[in-house]
Specification:
35% of the residues lie in helices and 22% in strands. By secondary structure, the protein is an alpha/beta fold. The strands form three sheets. A five-stranded mixed sheet has the order 7-6-5-8-9. Strands 1-2 form a two-stranded antiparallel ribbon. A two-stranded antiparallel ribbon has the order 3-4.
Length: 232
Amino acid sequence: MKGRVLIALIVVVIIPVVSYLIVDHYSRGAVEMPRRYFYDTVLVKREKGRDVYDTVWHKIKPFKLKNQFGNEVGLDDWGEKIIVVDFFFTSCPSICPTLTRNMKRLQTAFKKTDTIVRFVSFSIDPERDSVAKLKAYGDKFQIDHDSWWMLTGPKKEIYDIALNEFKASVASNGNIDTGFIHTEKIFLLDKEHVVRAWYNGLDSVHLDQVIKDVVLLNMERDKKKKRNLFRK
């Protein structure tokens, strides 16, 4: 009888746990995660007689801008969410309508799992894009305002965010007018507000990659947090 209980214990508990650990160990490098691009510094500390290097990745600095409801908001207000970002202006006659429609497609794709991702559109013409215009523009494209902010504010601050935080010029290979940042790029931030990727927001193939990368980032483990297989 005791032998049967032991066998049952091995089958029900031990084998699944061991299998999980084996799969987890060998699959860590199997999936290519979206890379980090920009770092602020590299810290060096001495551990067990050798130098250990720790890269401090560049995070989007905190800011406060007005959304389409006139509320002062920032990325931190959403907590640990993956964030999809673009830059636009409401009177744009060329790429912006397509870019916004594609952002809307991404929002719709995550409608059933909208707790993991948020969307932000920065106006690059904030002097003309009032709160009311942003709200009307969002309504025109039938966006879900609860998970998508359209932001306006001081032009200098928005351009600083675009150029120095998102590195929009780097993403566009330097082909960008720093006086009027008109880019088709969509940017992806992880839960710590680190830029992990950028895409051609006018290309449907790139949209599929955005969706895949959001899913991957949502599964990414925080290395600073210890795992507990039996946590309730």
